[in-house]
Amino acid sequence: MSLNNLTGRFALLTGLFVLLAELLILLPSLSNYRLDFLESRLERAQIASLALLATDESLASDLESELLQNAGVFNVVLRRNDIRQLVLSSPIPGPISATFDLRDQPFWTSIRDALMQLTDPQNRVIRVIGAPVKQAGQLIEITTDTRPLRQEMIDYGLRLLLISAAFSILTALLLNIAARRLLIVPIRRVINHMSAYASAPEDVRSIITPNARLKEVYEAETALASMQHTVTSSLKQKARLAQLGQAVARISHDLRNILTTAQIFADRLETSADPAVRRAAPKLVNSISRAVNLCETTLAFGKAEEPAPSLSRFNLAALVTEVTEGEAMASDRQDGAEPIEFLTDVPTTLTIRADRDQLFRVLSNLVRNARQALEATHKPGTIEIGAGEEETGWWIRIGDTGPGLPRKAREFLFQPFSGGSRKGGTGLGLAIAADLVRNHGGRLELLRSDDEGTEFVLHLPREMAALQGPADLPEPATQDF
Question: Which CATH architecture best describes the domain 306-472?
Fold first, then answer.
């Protein structure tokens, strides 16, 4: 049994604690043994003195010596009828060093006297006073030496320690067996499951199934199983994200070239003789430019990293109009779809400071989700966009009259591939929007989602201390309409 494991240390501590308890019991036990020893000497001395009193004659000196030797005392004094009488006597080998009255001795005093006699190696003469048995007088007094008493106390203490050690070893073994069965085996099972899971965290078969009988171990197994399910799910999700990043990165270069060619043709539309084409050309050019920029940052997005916002001041109402017009055109192209009304409540003079392209992506994702939710109901609906300015920054609210988000979608709202509410959706839109808003130092929140519709609000701070570099410097108002 090694002391480097829990079993060995538990057994060692159990033995030590039992020995400690026995040592605490040893002191009062030795005190009681001393009192019993002295009282037995008093009783034997009383019997010897009664033998003399019964004859009413003097005993021969050799018989008197034999009685005193059998009693283990030097002399005996009885007090009867208030008369002190020396009944038996013999020469005392030395002066009396101490007197002990056993008739009324406090507990702690008795322990102190026992320790003093146990630790004193010299043989001393002591006087002991007690009450005679069966009321055969007022008191009895004897003189005796301490050597036999000390030797008896030592022998008794050694016997008690040996018995205590045997009980300690037996108790430690029994507790060791019980601990191994109740604790060590379940803990080792948990450890084995952890080792097996660490070698293959993607394998759901290595996830522990809680079945321990002990409540604490069962709770530990339950917590471990929950953690393993979470880690396995996260690893699978990260693997999907990595695969997505690799796939998008591969097509990024070719897609950018295609969009660049389309941008060249779109630039020529500005010289078209058709006024409607000339009016639509700038919006088409801006859309293609955003697509080109997005392709150029595809690799960073595949690594779950978005570029830092490039801050500028722009008119928010114009950006909101651009988003709603694009989504309105997409809604009109849906055959048989019920009409969707887009309402905006954005002050025309409201100018904010943010990355215009990234904010366009945020609003597009939110408005597109609302439009698709309304189209899925095959009923007419409304999408509202409001904005305003506060002391610390700006807020933008997007709401709809759709059916609301499912419970699962609300639980994993801003997690990729988890918060999607539409069949066939990837759940990336809200995750991207939340990430872009966080890059601005702001936050995206779900205000409500019920049978009457869904409402999001995003807050953009006026000061973004986390951003460093030229992008933070104030820029003149620019319009990209």
Answer: 2-Layer Sandwich (3.30)
